[in-house]
């Protein structure tokens, strides 16, 4: 059962991925636990992401968690755009998708406790996995964000970094505004 698999993953009962990080006490990091939860959920649903090689699957799962938490109730294009922003950052910074997603203070949902982050809407989780897989597993997806490495919901926030003069390109897709900044070093 899915709830049992998720409970085991959250409590450390699932096998932690070999490349996952651990805290000082040797416990799996929050990122590692969430990837285990995501994998358990995908396996339970028999999602095609489980057929990918382990390294690629891990990157898809991290991106899917980002899509799920940032754009779960939004349009297909908005969800794909969140995955593309994750991809654009990973490529620009020459880092993994997972390190981009779990970098401190980059995506607000990552600050919550693991129990709050567990995907509860099966249909939305399946869509997030599909959108993430379409971007991460594709060597050259069409970038509908025009190279954006940041996004925000203008109805919720007005970030300092998105002020006029700091944005090179911007595009509204679904609920979010996708932007590429003149100087993207602000978040380092």
Automatic annotation (TrEMBL):
Question: This protein's superkingdom?
Answer: Bacteria
Q: Which InterPro entries match?
A: Cell_wall_hydrolase_SleB, SleB_dom1
The residue range of the signal peptide is: 1-24
The Swiss-Prot or TrEMBL record annotates one GO molecular function as: hydrolase activity
Keywords from the named record: Hydrolase, Signal
Domain named Cell wall hydrolase SleB: residues: 75-178
Know the name of this protein? Answer: Cell wall hydrolase
Q: In the record, what lineage is assigned to the organism producing the protein?
A: Bacteria, Pseudomonadati, Pseudomonadota, Alphaproteobacteria, Acetobacterales
